[in-house]
Predict the structure.
Amino acid sequence: MTVSKHEPESIREAADLVERDYKQVHRNLSELEDIGIIELKNDRPGQAKKPKLAYDSLEIDILFAESNGSIGSAAP
């Protein structure tokens, strides 16, 4: 993930690193903040928000419905 690898100083810098529109990256980082994966730090008023991972590592399990209606999981 770009945030952990490059430690951008702002959302704009993160957007530049991934070569995506600022608004899209801001929305995505805000969504990740809402579920507790990212912290958007603003240490000083008027300064840019710095994205930071909330954890050192993260494991994600994804459940999906199979065609027979049962639930399965995807593993890497």
User: Anything to note?
Assistant: The CA atoms of residues 10 and 48 lie 5 Å apart. The two ends are 16 Å apart (CA to CA). The beta strands are 38-41, 50-53, 62-65, 71-74.
